[in-house]
Amino acid sequence: MAMRVTQQLIYGNVISQNNAALSRLMETNNQASTQKRINAPSDDPNGAVTVLNTRADIDQLGQYKRNITTANGWLNQADSTLTSVSTLITTIKGYAEQGATGTITDENRGEIASAVRQYFQQLISQANTTYSGNSLFAGQKTDTEAFTEGLGMTSNDTAFDTALAAWPNPGYTVEGDTDSTVLVQFTDTTASPPAFEYTADGGQTWTAGTYSATPAAGTQTLQMGGVNLTMSDGALAAAKASANHEDSSGTWLWIRPAAYYQGNTKEDIAVTSANNAVVASAEGTFSGNVMVRVDDTTSGPTYSYSYSTDGGTSWMTGNKSGLPGPPTSLSVPGGVLTLSGTPADGDQFFIQPSTTDISLAISPTDSVVVNGVGKDIFGGIYEKTVANPTPPPANVKLNQAATFNGSDAANLFETVGKLVGYLETNNQAGCQEALDNLTASQQQILTTAASVGAKENRVTSAGTMVDTLAENSTTTLSKVEDADLTTLITKLSEQELAYQAVLKSSSMVMNLSLVSYI
């Protein structure tokens, strides 16, 4: 079959070849300018997928590096703070040893008390340390100071303390301010409420105390100048009188400095009920939400119940409660649910624990908690929700001293606050007790510092690993994406020569025309 070659066909082929040669040259020039073999997915579809995945890995590793920098800042600041606190405790222990010595005078103890009171305020300042404006020891309440200074109360009477904690009006509150410890002595317990005297100058002068004329039901408010102390009638009924101003007998109260924790705690556990008639509370350390269902309240002396830790997908059945109350205790993973009322079959309760940790991912497989819960480190007094153990059911929030292993001996702020009170009232035995507790408090601080140091080592190790991973990913990306410069330069020279040849030959072909032979 004959084919007619026209001038238009020749010109079209020439232009097509020119464009093809130019496109190849431009692509090679682009690779030369970027030094990348893959500039678009079409250059190498499989390689482009590898490039995108590797870049995502590098971006993630970059975030880990930023997290590591942040974690190092938080932990280094916490480490420095705890070291300073431990040094300060050592200094305070020296003063406590002097106060516990029988050879020093009342005036000496007063001078020591002034110094320890200043150190107490310095401890609060240390516990309120921030990093980049965030509180280190306030749990997740990073915009809140961990502790605030206030007043606390100490007694020398365990029977009085037991009555003070009893329902229906447990605990106490202190309002007002004082620059020195207020010491309270009950002088006559035959009256109701009992008569008392107080001193704010270490026992040099005594003043008869008064009570508020309009106390809340079941309570009394002791008025001592600028300080008011409110407690239950039951606690006052348990107080013992003493005939003289020697605190070796009778019930005595020391109103002295205290630190109140303002952050959140792991004990902040919310319990909601499908049946609002039944008030419930929970105590323990829960790793997640727990659902509890009462299955049978009629068979046997105990309730049958089930619980779920996966949002109700699966249930652990066949559990038995404590003896029916109220209150009734139901053991669940992490703690105990207490029902202050009588439940019905099918009633459900939802336990939601508080989260206090600020956790930063420092590697693909590891994360580290960078903050702390101040009351679990320094102690102090914190607000806790407590359920009424007897009907009518009710929950109240009480200020309680933080405990460690069931004792407040390692509670640093309470120990130093009591020491100030004992020094300012010339109580040698109290100073000795505070000295013993300071050792436990310092050990608690050192244990926390060791934990922070271990976290710092983890962060350092993670940083080394992340750097290695980032280097490997960068090398992988370079092998897949980067162009071979030697090959690229050779290819560029060849394509430039080819393009010049196409242009020259095209110009010669384009000049051929029948018109030239007419």
UniProtKB/TrEMBL annotation:
SUPFAM superfamilies: Phase 1 flagellin. Keywords: Cell projection, Cilium, Flagellum. Residues 15-142 form the Flagellin N-terminal domain. One of its GO terms (molecular function) is structural molecule activity. It holds the Pfam family Flagellin_N. InterPro entries: Flagell_FlgL, Flagellin, Flagellin_N. GO terms for cellular component: bacterial-type flagellum hook. GO terms for biological process: bacterial-type flagellum-dependent cell motility. Gene3D superfamilies: f41 fragment of flagellin, N-terminal domain (1.20.1330.10). PANTHER family: FLAGELLAR HOOK-ASSOCIATED PROTEIN 3 (PTHR42792:SF1), FLAGELLIN (PTHR42792). This is Flagellar hook-associated protein 3. It comes from Solidesulfovibrio carbinoliphilus subsp. oakridgensis.
